[in-house]
Specification:
Strand content: 15-25%
Shape: globular
Helix content: 25-40%
Radius of gyration: 16 Å
Order of helices and strands: HEEEEEEEHHH
Distance between the termini: 20 Å
Number of helices: 4
Strand order of the largest sheet: 1-2-3-6-7
Oligomer: single chain
Function: Removes the formyl group from the N-terminal Met of newly synthesized proteins. Requires at least a dipeptide for an efficient rate of reaction. N-terminal L-methionine is a prerequisite for activity but the enzyme has broad specificity at other positions.
Cofactor: Fe(2+)
Largest sheet: 5 strands, antiparallel
Number of strands: 7
Bound molecules: zinc ion
Active site: 135
Keywords: Hydrolase, Iron, Metal-binding, Protein biosynthesis
EC number: 3.5.1.88
Length: 194
């Protein structure tokens, strides 16, 4: 089945993804499919949780355009050494149309692996640092609006409520499995890759 982007409040977005221990052709194909979805939806990053895969992998390209800038597929990312602080507007492909100012460290270190198994170890700064922090948050089950003030949150609560209403109706009509069904899907993926 082709991958598709899931929207808040789908439970997989709240799942803390486990590290990947096996890279095979299927995983490489899924990474390519995630890049396709990211570009098609004019995003700059997409985490595996957002396509209902509970594994530690994300894709990113800060330009949002195929063939421009640098394209990243990062496996088992870890972030540390935060420095500075900066607030800037963020959005998310799992809550399309919702934006808010999010305060984050200005620079961080990112470690992880690419699809070929090469070790990544980079100091990130500026927009790319923000994008990758947002994606690693997804892998830990964290949404960008978990990191905003209560006051800012009140501005977007109405929009989030609409996503909740849509989700409930998709569940009622059987388009999204119940929690037990989703837990089963998650267990299947974890068995295969983590
Ligand atoms: Zn996001």
């Amino acid at each position: 089945m082709p991958l598709s982007i899931i929207h808040f409040p789908h439970p997989t977005l709240r799942h803390r993804s486990k590290p990947i221990v096996r890279v095979d052709q299927r995983l490489r194909d899924m990474a390519a499919e995630m890049l396709d979805l990211m570009y098609a939806n004019e995003g700059v990053g997409l985490a595996a949780n957002q396509v209902n895969l509970p594994i530690r992998m994300f894709v990113a390209n800060e330009t949002g355009k195929r063939g421009e800038g640098q394209e990243w597929v990062v496996i088992n990312p870890e972030i540390d050494r935060p420095k500075g602080n900066e607030a800037s507007q963020e959005g998310c492909l799992s809550v399309p149309g919702v934006y808010a100012q999010v305060k984050r460290p200005k620079s961080v270190r990112l470690q992880g692996y690419d699809l070929q198994g090469n070790e990544l170890n980079m100091e990130l700064d500026g927009f790319l640092a923000r994008v990758m922090q947002h994606e690693v948050d997804h892998l830990d089950g964290v949404m960008f609006f978990d990191r905003i003030s209560e006051e800012t949150k009140r501005d977007i609560d109405g929009e989030l409520y609409e996503f909740e209403t849509t989700f409930e109706s998709l569940r009622r009509t059987g388009n999204i499995p119940d929690d037990a069904g989703i837990a089963q899907q998650i267990a299947k993926w974890e068995e295969a890759y983590t």
